[in-house]
Specification:
This protein has 360 residues and is α+β, with helices and mostly antiparallel strands. The chain has 14 helices and nine strands.
Amino acid sequence: MYRSGLRDLEIHYTYKSKWYFERAEKILTALVESYLSLHGAKRFLKGLSSPVFFDALSVASFLDELEGGATTIMAAIFKNIIKPEIGLAVVGGKRVEGYQVPAELDMIGRYFGFSSERLDELKYASKMVAKVDNVAIQDGFPLYFHLMVVSKDGEWTIIQQGIKVLEGLVRRYHWASIKLKSFVEEPHTGIISAHREKTVIDMTSMKSEEARKACVELVTHDFKKLRRLHEASSKSIQLRLTDLEEPNRNIELDMPSIKWVYLQSLYQKQPRNFEELLSHRGVGIQTLRFLVFACIQLYQVYPSFEDPAISFEEAYKLAETLDDKWIYEVMDALKESSLEMFLKKVSYNRLSSLLYTVDS
């Protein structure tokens, strides 16, 4: 399956003059309007779930120099130019704005005439997407950005970004409701990264299916064993699981310190599956990491420790295989846009360079 949606980027804290952002807004506004006219809102919504399409818009708008920072700029511009009148609405954003999604969904729900059930589904999707990328995939990039684009039909695309502060790197996650079969197994529309982390706990991998089942088994049927393991960890902070005998890998995994009350609450809930377990309040990074540790220690069941990210070049080639020629569509929209010839030519050359890069 084509997994994109994660991209490692750098954050550059350099000063950019006002005209730089104004130029980006001018280009992106004309480009989006042209694309919507040519391909419609539904195709645009699907495009945003593709890192290739998103990066093409960034490159055409002169924003690739900002790399990770381009995401937040594009989000601000989208919120200014994409209105419910065209059948799409944009909610969320950076930090505090990301927490305002439920309230913003209520407002667009009234405009689109969504039922209370549909609104609950959208709010649940927003919550679960954030929970998966923060907790089920433990790659060291805490989220600070959450953008949700919703159509009048109730379909959605979500773009998230996390940051590794010390290294100045961000990672981008893309999701789409179209063809989404599960929030917890291979849910992203792709994963793209400048480099792969050595060790990532990826509970969304197909290889983690048994580990997901084992986590549920632990909190519903083997709770006493889980309790004994927790008590053992509290007696010795040196308790570690080292040199895991996963094929061709040696992994060192620390036993995390957790609040037992969260596991007690899980036991009382008796989750039927991993999604219910993950969605439960209080199940965060440490709690899930403890369950992963317990699965290995008690059941000898391993999750995937592979970083699910792929490179931009790989993502583009896969997109070609699936006949999703996003960059060419952006080029067509650029040709038909209202931009003056000089900006069209420069943006077109930048997109051509992008094509040359991924084709070489």
